[in-house]
Each structure stands twice: as structure tokens, then as C-alpha cells.
Amino acid sequence: MGYIKTIIIVMILSIGGTYVYIQFFSGNSASSLQTTATGPVVQKYRDKAVVHLYFGAMDGKYLTAEERVLPRPDDASVHGAIIMDALASGPERELLKTLPDDAAALSVFVTDSGTAFVNMNSQTSQNHPGGIEAEFLTVYSIVNTLVLNVSGIERIKILINGREAETLAGHLDIEQPFEADMLLVR
User: Fold this and answer.
1) Region 88-102 average pLDDT
2) pTM higher than 0.90 for the full model?
């Protein structure tokens, strides 16, 4: 009989804990974030910051920064996901999009050592237009945008659907993490 009481108590505590968790984290608090198939949907954040998103210059040979004001949560992974969502949506002025239209960051995870793992969906690779220059611009638009805007990120490791890949589109080895490269920025 004591065994059944223990099971019932554990079940009640589990249900109660789940209820409290859902109520606490699903409200519109200052740090509420939901994720959709296209990336994070920001509910509300008190802090905002100017960030520089790196898109292709009109000549297609360099990156150019576009300023945006985006929410700035304290968590580097969440901040990175918000920035990646903005990068995937494309430029607001006359610059070239560096990611395919259906590309999306599925997740961003930042380690204590400063490496951010950016998990891109398979369309990022499958629908990439190809070419060495386009591939460089895609990789470094992700790398420069995150490294230069998110405190705590020093290098980027790009994953495709949660797995390591040799290249993004056949030219540039993405098996190792990348650091920012300002030589590609004009």
C-alpha cells in the first residue's frame, strides 16, 4: 500500500511541477521566447540593441553591414537565434541576401568556451546557389554577424540538421569552427 501512495505522490508532484513550469514560462514575461519552423518569435524584451547584420554587397564579392535594432536578451544562445532569424529574413535595403529563401537556423547553442553551434536546416545547403564566392559570403555572413554582435561568441561551428557536414555547397570546408574575418567586409 505504501508503494501505491508513493507513486500517487510522485504523479501529483510531477503534474503540479509541469503546471507551474508551463504557467511560469508561457507568460508574456520579459524573457519569453517561442520557436517556430522559421526561427524564434519574440514575445517581449525590455532591452534592445543595435546589431550589424552582414549581407552581400551589390557586386557579390564582399559583405556589407546593415544596422538593425533587435531585442537583446541576456542569454547568448537566445540572442544568437534572434539575430539568425533576422539574417535569414534578408536585407531591408539594397544588399544581397546571403542565405537561400527557405534557409533557417533551427537552433543556436553557445558553449562556455565561446563556440556557437549554429544548426541550419537542410534547405540552407540543398538550395544554396553554389559557387565558391557565394559559399564564402554565406558562411561569413553567419560567422561575422554572430561573432561581432553577441557577447560570449568567439567562433562558429555550422551544422546542417544537427549533423556535421563537410561543406555547405561543395567548396568551403565547414568541419572546423570559423572566427570572424573582417577582410571580407566593405
Assistant:
1) 97
2) no
